[in-house]
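Tutorial, part two.
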Amino acid sequence: MKVLAISDTHFKRSEEMLSFVEEVEDLFFKANLVVHAGDFVSEEVYSTLKKVCDKNGIDLLAVRGNCDELALKEVDVVKGIGAKHEPSMPDFADIYYLALELGVSVMVFGHIHSFALVSKRPLVFCPGCAKLRQYAFVDKKLTFFHGGERVESYNI
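Running the prediction step on this input gives:
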């Protein structure tokens, strides 16, 4: 499974989401699943991402963030991959234990607006803030990107 993980887009208009998709299109269209770990900020942005994913046969896992008033779950799982927006512990142990409880192999979280790798088994990480052009891609490796450039890569 190839996963594009994003969070904290904080976009207000669909044009911003489409621009982001265009910027990351080489990874976006390689992905089987796009995970958005909350803070879309607007229904319009969520709907735009969902339409792009649906049109291209890409699954979407999206959860509600603290800046969202969307009818999305706080925690959700698709194909053994989970997402939750906001950690409640400073070391993110709650997210790690949630991943174990859910039995997922990958758990994506947001809210902190920076890259964070918590564990590799299960794989628990924050892709950073999409508004700042931070995102992650999971294939055989976990790779963090900032502004289209690879920042860090980890074998998983």
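The mean pLDDT is 97. In part three we will examine how such features are distributed along the chain.
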